[in-house]
Write a structure and sequence with these properties.
single chain; mainly alpha; 5 helices; 47% helix; 0% strand
Length: 111
Amino acid sequence: INDVGLRTSLFPGFPFDQPVATAFPGAGVTEDLLFDPLLNRVIGSAIAPIATQPDIATVKTELDGLVHGVPSSTTTPRPGLADGGGDASRTQTIAKSVCAAVLGSGVTLLQ
């Protein structure tokens, strides 16, 4: 994320240089530009999934909850990382958190 060339090649189109409200507006508008390349590299393609791999849509829902929070209509509401806004530095911190969540999850374990 800190290396402009690498992040541009790994996550083309994601607005790392924009404030949080622009980079993470919700509804997958720009979030998928971060989530999809990451999940495709870590989980793999949905075209030929391994039988025991997690469902990509489910993982994306969890990542969206990390970024935007879980609304009060659920059993335990929680704020998201994007709540409260912030500048481009905060956008990059949130992107790093998303990467860390995926790379540090059970998705990376092999049986």
